[in-house]
Amino acid sequence: MLKRRNLLIAAMAWTLPFPAFATPSAIRMRDLYNKDTSFSELALSLQDQRIDVEGFMAPPLKADATFFVLTKKPMAVCPFCETDADWPDDILAVHTKRRIKVKPFTLRLRVSGVLELGSLRDAETGFVSRVRLTDATYR
Amino acid sequence: MNRLLPMTALTALMSTTAGAQNVSQADNEWFRAGQAAIAQKTAVQPITSQAKNVIILIADGNGVGTNYATRLWHGQQNGNMGDENVLPYETFPHLALAKTYNVNAQTPDSAGTGTAMHSGIKTKAGVVGVDETLNRGDCAQTEAASVTNMSEIMTATGRSVGVISTARITHATPASVYAHSADRNYESNDGLPEGCAQPDIASQLIEAMKAGHVDVAMGGGRRHFIGKDVTDEEGKTGKRTDGRNLLEEARSMGAQYAWNDETASALALDGSSPILALFESSHMKYEYDRTGEPSLAEMTSTAIRALQGNEGGFFLSIEAGRVDHANHDGNLHRVVTDGVAFAEAVAIADELTSDEDTLIVVTADHEHAIAFNGYCGRGTPITGLCYGIDGNGVMHNGEPQTGADGKPYTVVGYLNGAGTVLREDVNWVGARGDITQDEATDPDYLQQALIPRSSETHSGEDVAIYAKGPWAHLLNGTVEQNFIFHVMHHAATVE
C-alpha cells in the first residue's frame, strides 16, 4: 500500500532534475589534456572558442564568487584545503558570467564558456590556472 | 538417512579416476577439468626449507569482491568472458582468508593492517609500528609502544630490505615496513602536533636507509622529503618546514635517486648502494593515467634485481596502493586497471624468483563497500550494465537488466560514496539516472552508490591470501591477518 509519505517521496523523485549526461557535442575534460598534462590537439584547436565541457564543481574557494574549479571526477576533498601538490593535474578553472550557485560536488555539470590556454593568476582568489573557461554559464 | 545414501554412493564412485569413467558426464569438459585439478592438487608438496627471500605483495583495498572485478576485467580485455580468467596469483597452490579488523575497529584501516602484516601484532586503526597501548596521536607514547618491524627483523637476519608502493612511500602500508608513528598522517614534520618529539615518517625512512634497514624504496611522495620552499623536478613544492632536504641527505649518504622512468632505468642494480626513487610529489598516477613513471611491475623488477645481489637473501614488500584510492573514488575503471597492474607485478616477481627459495605472499589489507548486482549473463562487461542471461546460449542476451524503477543498472555498485544517487540540494532525496552502456563504461564513470559520502569506505570483509614457496602451506583456512607475518618470519628463520 502506498502510504502518504512514500507518495510524497515518489512525487519528489519524479520531479528531480536528473544530471545532465554527455551528448556528442560535449567535451570531456580529459580530452583537453594529454597524459603528461600538456594541452591536446583538440584544446589547441579550440582556443578562444566557446565550448561545452562536462565535469563536477569542486567545493568553491569562496562564497559569492564568480569562479570555481571543474574536475573530471567528483572532488571528494576541497583542493584549496591542501597544498597545490594535492590539486588534480587536469582541472579546469571556470570564470562565470554570474555569481555562482554552489552545486553538489557529486552532480555532473555541463559548462559553456570560452576556452583560454596559458597560465593566469586570478586577481580575486590568487588561484593560478593553466586553462580556463571564461564568460561561463553552467547547468 | 535414506537421502544420504545416494550422496555416499556418489562419493565412493568418484573417489577414483577409474570410478569417474563410469559416470555419464565423464567426457564433459568441466568434469575432465575437475579431474585434472585433482591430479594437480595431489601433486603439490610442501616446501619446508628456509626461504632465502620473502616477497609480500599487497593490493590495498583488493578484497575478494574487488579482486573478482579485476579477474573479469582482465579476462574480458584478453578476449574471453571474464569468469574463466585466472589471474597470475590465482594459480598459487595455497590459499587462506584473513580477518582484517583492527583491535578497535571492525572496519580496518591500512595502518593497523600494515602493522599486522609487517610486525605480527594487531593494533589500533591509524597507527604504524606501535602496539595497542598507544592512544592514536599521542607522540609521547610512540617510543614505549614501538614494536620491531619487518625491516628491522629481516636486516638482523642478514637480508636486504625493499619497499615499493604506488602510493606515497610514507603512506600507511609502506610506512609499516620501516616506521613507528602515533599517527599515519605524520608523514613529514609539518604534520606533527606541536611539541611532538617523534620523528616524522619520511625522516624515519631516511634514517632506516642510513642504518641499513632499508636498501630499496620506490614510490610516490617527494613532497614529504623536501621543504615548502623547495621545488621538485616536476615543479611542485614540498611540505617540510624544518629546513631539511631528505633527498639531499639520501644522496649524501651514497644513495642513488630517481624521479622518473628515465632516471629509474639508469639506476645501478648491483646492490652497491641503496636506492631511493620517488616518482610523484604525492601518489603515483593511476595505471590508466600513467606517463613518465614506471609501472608497478617495472618497479618490482628493478627492486628484485637490485636486492638479489645479497647472497643472504632479501625481504620485499610491494603495495598497489591505488586500487584502494580508486575504490574510495567509486571509479571501478581505475580499480581494475590498477588491479591488473598489480597482477602483472606478481607475475614478474614470480618469474624472477624460484619457488624453492622464495616465499611469495599475495594479499590485500582490507576490502571496500563494493557490491555486485545480478542476474547478469556471461560476458557482461564488468564495469558496465548488467545484461540478462540467455537461456538458449552462453553469452548474455544483450538486454540491460532493469530495476523496479525501469532503469538499467551496472554490475557493480557501492554502498556509499561520491557516486551516490541522493542529492544534497534536494534534501537528500534522489533517483537513479537512466544510464547508458557508453556512460557506464567510460573510464571516469562512478558506479552508483547509495549512502552519500565524499569518499567511499573500507569494509571489514575477509581478504584472500595466496601463497607459494617455502612454508606457504601454512597459509590455509581462516586466519588472523597478523598470522601472515608469522608465516613469513617462520619461513625466513627456520633452521
Automatic annotation (TrEMBL), chain A:
Protein name: Uncharacterized protein
Keyword Signal recorded: yes
Species name: Roseobacter insulae
Signal peptide: 1-22
Record bears the keyword Signal: yes
Domain of life of the organism encoding this protein: Bacteria
Keywords: Signal
TrEMBL record, chain B:
Binding site for Mg(2+): 60, 171, 173, 319
Pfam families, alphabetized: Alk_phosphatase
Keyword Magnesium: yes
Residues binding Zn(2+), per UniProt: 60, 324, 328, 365-366, 458
Protein name: Alkaline phosphatase
Cofactor binding description: Binds 2 Zn(2+) ions.
UniProt-listed InterPro entries: Alkaline_phosphatase
